[in-house]
Every structure is written in C-alpha cells, then in structure tokens.
Structures
1.
Amino acid sequence: MQKDAQLFDEKTELERKLGLPETLSIVVNRIIGSGIFRTPAPIMFITASVGLFYGVWIIGGLATILGALCYAELVAMMPKSGGPYVFLKAAYPPIVTFLRGWAMFFVSETGAIAAVSVFFSETALTIINPEISKYTIAAVATILVWLLTLLNSFGIQLSGRLQNIFSLLKIGVLTIIIIMGFSSGIHPENFRDPDLSQTSGWAGIVAIFTAMRYGFFAYSGWEGATYVAEEVKNPRKNLPRSLFIGISLVLVLYLLINTAYINTLGPIQMGKAKVVAADAMQVAAGTIGTLIITSAIMVSTFGNVNTQLLVKSRTWYAMARDKLFFGRLSTVHIKYKTPNNALYAQALWTTLLILFSTVAENAYEAIIDYFSFTSSVFNVLTFASVIVLRYKFPDKERPYRVWAFPFTITIVLAIQLIFMLTTLYTAPLPSLLGIILTSTGLLYYKYMVPSEAKLDTSGSADRGLSQ
C-alpha cells in the first residue's frame, strides 16, 4: 500500500520551478511544431475535398479536447512525471506499462523528435541550396538534437524560460501568416471542390481517417506538460488548466491558418504542395512571404524540438526509477537536478532514427507512418485507464473529473479505434515495423527487468466504479 500511495502524492526529488505560464507554454510549444506548416498538404491530397479536409481538423480537434478531459482527471489525481507512462502504471500490470515506455522510446516519441528535426533541417538548408543532399539534412537535424539536449541539461528553470519565449514567437508568427493569407481579400472560388474531387460515403470516411494520422500528428504533444508534472508548481490545478487553455488556443489558430491556406491556394494547388505554408506565403507576398514563412518554420520547429527533448526525457527517467528501463537513466544531476543520462540516451536513439530516415523518399511522412499505429494502440489503453482507475481506486481524491463520464471516453475510444484500424489498413508495412520494434521489448522485460519490478504494484483497493 505504500507504493500505492506514492502514485498519488506530490513528493519528488526534482525541483518545482514551472508555473502556469511555463506549463501553458510547454503545451503550446509541443503542439505547434512542423505539422501545421506541412501536413495540411497531404491531408488535402488524401481527402480531395474542402469539406472532408475540415472534417479531419475538426474531428482531430474534438478528439484532442476530449482526450485532454481524460488526461486532466488522471494528472490531477497523479501529479507524477512521465505522462501516460504513469497512468498506465497505475491501471495495468507492469508489462503493459513497460511496453508503452519501450514503444515511446524506440518508436513513437523519439520518432516524433526525429520528424520535426528533419523538417527544421530541410527548411533551413533549402534556403541555401534546393538540391541539398538528404545526408546533409540528416547531419544538421542531428546537430540540432544534440545542441538542444545539452541546453536542457542545465536545469529546468532555463528550459522553462525558453518555452515562454518560443510560445510567444510561434503565436505571433502564426497570426502574421493568417493575416497575410487574407491580405488580397477573400476568394470564395478557392473553397469549392473541383468536380472530380468529390468523395462521399464509406470512401469519404476512409479518406478522413487515413488523413487523420497527419492531423493527429499536427495536434500531437498536447499532453506534453504531464511529462514534467513533478517540476510544476501546484500541479493538480496548473496542469489541467494548461491543457484546456493551450489546446483551445491552438485549435482556433489551426482552423484560421488552414482557412488562410485554402483562401490563398485552393484545394488542387494545396494538395500538390510539399510545404503548403511556403507555397501560400509565396503567392500572398512573393519573396518576402517566403522569407517570413521560412523564419516561422525554423522558429516553430526549433522550439518544438526543444520542448520534446525536455518533456520526453522524464519518461525514461521515471521508467528507470521503477527499474523497468536502463538503470543509469534514473540518475539526476547533482547541481542542475535534471535527468541528464535520460536526455543523452534519448538523443542517441533519435540520431539513429534520423539516419534511418535517409533511406526513405519522403523522410518526414515516413517517420509519421512508422509510429502512428503503435501510438494509437497505447493511446486507447491510456484513455481507457480512466475507467480502470475509477474501478481500482474509487475513493482516491480526484480534483478534476471527466465531464459527461462515461460518454466522453466512449467517443474518444471510438475515434481512436477507427483511426488505429484505418492506419493498419492503409500503412501496413510502417505499422508492422513499429509493432516489431515494440515486441523486442518482451526480451528485455524477460531477461533484464528484476523480479520485484514485475510485481503488480498498481493497487488492490476496494472495488466499485466511481461515477
């Protein structure tokens, strides 16, 4: 029962230096990265319809908000660093928790860092030479990862200040892009679908959920602040607030900026774009527009990689602390109180993924396809943990409760399950690769994880579903 209590208390050896502004900045920085500048093009190409295009963004936004309701209940009840790893730890047997953490490290979370780093590098180097080598792109992406890793090893307070700076810069730049997208007036003809682009019925539903993996990637990261829960002041209040405020702000910005893209380019030209934001700003303002959007992408992706490196390293630290991962990753720097070994291991594997991506024709999209299915499997388990924990711990304090339970969670799970099956159907080989890498964790769990860590410590409280 002592271990049960540790799941719900606020004791930590880390320093609580992050207030609501820094926590909110982490949410904004984690969501706004490369996605909104690039993924609208493949989403429009797949859906081939303005209506279905908006459907992807609206359904994705709805799922994100409903998912945040679930996370708000979980993190307010368990303000521990590690994000979904902590929630799974409380809800399921240790092997489930371990596999989620293993998949996060080797597939999904480092994969997301690699994708955004590659996009930053592509954007920066294309200015110098449009025919730049993909190996040069990989080299610059790797340098970015290690530079920011070193910066994050000098204390959470410095990292928090960087979050505030980059979140304000991102919001300002996106606002400029939205204004420029309407600078030549409103063009209603660009919001009409070409005759041959109509998609309806089941084909339309499949198109929406096929494109959703790029939409979810653009929204991904909203849970980022929960990874650093042990470094947040008053976490039971500040973490739920940061989720709701941050996601709402980004949702509004995304709808506005996508409308600006369509207004400027129209659906056909938008679907053909490689970097839709750059094409839109080239049309809107010529060379000046290209310069602005290039600067915006670099600022946004730089800040996003920084935030990802900061928050995700806390999961590997939490896993190692529980003896479910490489033991040396559980150490904290004596002076700066940061999990530096976890940061360095994260950077090393991300580097290998960046190098691996050079074999793909479109590295950015390939990385997203690689981790989408695996992520969705564990997302389903994480959202379902709200139900499991209400059954296992009905009497634990819940400063926030999911609104309209259980209908909210039912909707979230339905969207995630449909997305998961569609991703497996439309991207089978990348999905299979993610599954194989996740499965390798079973060998580590069997031979390397000590017996005491395999015991189910998630509690055996009085049973009874808490409404």
2.
Amino acid sequence: MSAPLPGPLAGLAPLLEDYGYAALAVLVLLDNCGIPAPGQTILVLAAVYAGSGHLSLPAVIAIALAAAIAGDSLGYLIGATGGRAFVHRWGRYVLLTPARMERADGFFDRHGGKIVTVARFVDGLRQTNGIIAGTTEMGWRRFMPFNVLGAVLWVGVWSAFGYLAGANIGVIYEKLVRYQLWLLIAVGVALAAVGARALVRHLRRRRAGQ
C-alpha cells in the first residue's frame, strides 16, 4: 500500500498480505465470539485493500458477514450451554448473585434485540453480546435476526468506510476510534437510564403492594 496506515492497520497489513481472506475470516469470527481480536481493524484494512484493487470488495463483505454471524452464533451457543453453570459456580466471586442474574434475564428479555443489534459497534459488547444472550436464555429464533441485522450494519459501515476512505484512512480512522469512546459512554448512559427506570417501576410496584 502506498498510503500511510495508522498503527493498528499497519500492524495487520503483513497478516492480510500473507493470508488474505483467511486472515479476515478468522479474526472477524474470533472478535465476535468472545475472544479479543482485531476483527474490526482487519475489516477496515481489507476494505482499504479492496479500494486499491488488491482484494474484491464483494468478497470482503461476504466473508466478513459470514464470519461475524458465525462468531456471534458461536458465542450464543457457548453462553447457552455453559453460561448458567459458570454463573452458578463463579458468579458470587464477581458479585453476580442469583437475584442480579434474574434482573439481567428480565432486562435482556426486554432489550436484548436492541443490544445484539448495536453491540458490534462497541468494543467489549461486540465480543460478549452473543455469550450474554445465550446465558440469559434469549430465544435462538429471536436472537438470530438481530444477530444478522447487527452483522449487516457493522460490516456495511466499516467496509464502506475503509473502501471510501482510501488514502485518507490514517487520519479518518484515528478520529473514528476517538469518537468510539463517546459512543461507548452514550451506550453506558442509555443502559443506566433504562436500568434506573426499571428500578423506579419496581419500587413503585412494591410500594403499591404494601
């Protein structure tokens, strides 16, 4: 590549040049199933390479989309098969009591679809939302449409960004990473507001029942 790349992209360039689409598939899958991996970064880099003619953009989108859906689905299966046992065995060490787990179940039952859809745009949630959905026993048929929708939005946004950014990728990528922190804060505030609202309703019901 003739255009300068920022640190995270430059570090992955040799991997993408040596292994191509396979590197994209593996890192995106791992990044979506609970294992911290630079899946989002390599997706952007692959799109940049597609813009310069080194890779095929349709292939980049198709492979990343399949890997993202498969990764989140694998995370869901991990949570559905072992999440409850893990919480029962180790939850008390991280203050995850049965009562709190029950509240988490109710919260995800009401808002799980929205969380799964937007989670890929937030580091931490991208890696764990499938596991959380499985652990809180979100139905598979309900989970999958939101899983697919979230993957389509995530792959679409970042592949289009990388493809169109081209030679300006360095400056633009650094700014977007900076703004991602504000997105994370906004999501946290929104979740806190929803939780506070649920708590207020719960307290009102308790008072009404007394």
3.
Amino acid sequence: MMDFKGMYEAQKAFRSRIDYKGSDRFEKLILALQVELGECANELPESFKFWAHKKNDLETALVEYVDGLSFILDLGIEIYFEDFEMIYRLSSKDKDKSVSSQFNRIFSLVARFNWNKSPITYIELISEYLILGELLGFSFEEIEEAYYQKNAVNHSRQNEGY
C-alpha cells in the first residue's frame, strides 16, 4: 500500500511555501482537481474518444494523475484529515469497470465532496482514485514515485517564482 502519511506530509511542506490567504482555497482546489482529472482523461483518448483514432499516452497520463493526487492530498489538509488507517480501497479492481465510468464516478465524488466535506466522502474519493490508477495499469510504487518526482518539480517551480 502507498505511504499516504509520507505523501501527505510532503504535500503539507509544499503547501506551506504557497502564501495564499483567500477564503476560497477549498473551492479552487476542487476546480484544480477537476481540471487535472480532465487533463488525465485527455491523455487517454482510447477510453472515451470513440470518434478519434489517437492512442493513449500513459506516461503523460501518470503525470496528470499524480497532479490530481496532489490536489486530493491538499483537500485532505483542508479538512484536517489525518486518519491514515482509514484509507483503504473500498472495492477491489472490477474488471467490468471501464476507465470512462471510473472518471465519471470520481467527478461525481469530487462534486459531492465539494458540498459535504465529509471524511467518509474523502476516503471514498481516494479509494476510487486508486481504483482508477489500477484500471490504468499504474502500480502503487509507480504512483508514489511519480508523486515525489512531481513534488520536487513543484518545489523547483516555486524556487523560480512560478
């Protein structure tokens, strides 16, 4: 299983570098997550663009996927979530689930979480996000490694005034 506590702490450290005092941080994080979900899906045209003949770009999709994970972790910080033992997969990989239906499920959960900010919805969101990664063929090790690589890039960007 992934080291959520370690990634959560890394996200907290990155977040502390961004001096944002607005009262709308949560809603901006929700929108940012939705944008990253769309960007990830866009790298996977075989999963939903039945009208196109483009191939999936799994390498770029993984980068977009971990961008989304960063925002999910940041949303956990927003609700002061720290019950890491509660992060578990609610269901195992379902071979009948399609990637497009999983994206739609996650978009729905993000909308629900936007309204209720419940730790249970947050856990469900993480769980379904992990299932999406599994459906895409990403191992937990690949996801964690890609997260830390992107976190380093994000720190570098902050150093450069991004």
